[in-house]
Amino acid sequence: MTTTAGKARGWRKMAVQAVIGGIAGAGGMVAVLSLVDGQGGRDWAPSAIILIGVGLIYALMGLFVGIGTLAPRLLGQRLLNVTDAEEIVEERAHMGASAVCCLVLGMALMLLAHSVATAAEGGAALVTPPVAYGLLVAVLSVFALVSAWMWQSFDELWRQLTIDTGAVAGNLLIPVLILWGGASAVGLTDSPNALDLVSLSFGALLLACFVAAGRRGMMTPR
Length: 222
Known about the structure:
By secondary structure, the protein is mainly alpha-helical. The chain has 8 helices and no strands.
């Protein structure tokens, strides 16, 4: 009976998290497009809007995990898929670093989309496309160092999960790129936009994280 009740609470918790995430995502997308509306944001090419959406997902993930890490008992155990606040406290260093990385990466992706799309429309972006690209490269370089630091303290489970994520992401990307590139080469579809490749890469990585975690039972409501 206790186990059944616990599972029911877990599913209710996940449903609430999904609703909150959906509302935050929709509201964030509307807010972002409204902010850039004066620069033609709502008339941007689909590639830029898709990258904005991908960046927003990363940013919101980082925001929610960051808030949960800072306030594990007040918010963390309710917002995140953890057993209790103590689990967050034990993993605070890793979760905090991951939250900051996701938030910064999401902002860098949105800035790149904004700068490229605005420049294409002849407007003045916050920064030029080369600067936005340079910032993204710098962010990824720092992430490589953070990942190396985190790898040293990972246990076997997290190391294997990291490897699985990379493998799943690669298996998702390779067929899509081959089929898309081949179809474009023979004139069956348009060539991929450069921003599409960025969105596809980070989207595949995000999906791979959930697939790899789900295969190891880490997505089960708790």
